[in-house]
Design brief:
about 150 residues, mainly beta, eight-stranded antiparallel sheet, 10 strands, signal
Length: about 150
């Protein structure tokens, strides 16, 4: 589920940028398009987003947010996009777990990938990689650390 959220953030960044019309103006024009917060006695959330034209990238969109709920979890995320790329990332922390993920979209090739890390206070963890393109992973050991390198083909 978390990786789906990260993928959605990446697509949101790409969609946000794609929905903005490219201007051929030589000047950059980026403005805050959303700034919100809500809180109650046990939690809250806040976010900010920008959009516009940023030279030399063209149409861009970016945003970030955070949320918290006392004793349950807190987390946050960031998304950004341009005509060429979309990126989303975020984290969620509970009393016993940490989840961190990112999703990347390459708009010209219509390809994407996401990575999710889940760690637990008992010392176990999981690393998940998903891609719209076929890939192969090679495990190795570098300077005493276990490493895996995944490459699309």
């Amino acid at each position: 589920m978390f990786s789906q959220i990260i993928s959605l953030l990446a697509l949101t960044g790409a969609t946000t940028a794609a929905s903005l019309h490219r201007r051929d103006s030589p000047a950059s024009n980026v403005t805050v398009v959303s700034l919100e917060k809500t809180t109650n006695s046990t939690g809250g959330q806040g976010n900010v987003a920008i959009g516009g034209v940023l030279n030399p990238f063209g149409s861009i969109g970016a945003g970030c947010g955070i949320n918290w709920n006392d004793g349950v979890a807190y987390g946050g995320g960031l998304q950004a996009g341009s005509d060429a790329f979309g990126l989303g990332g975020g984290f969620k922390i509970t009393p016993t777990t940490l989840e961190v993920g990112t999703g990347i979209g390459l708009n010209p090739s219509n390809s994407s990938a996401d990575v999710t890390f889940t760690g637990h206070t008992n010392g176990t963890f999981q690393l998940r990689f998903a891609s719209s393109s076929p890939f192969a992973c090679v495990p190795s050991n570098e300077e005493g650390s276990n490493v895996v390198v995944c490459t699309t083909y």
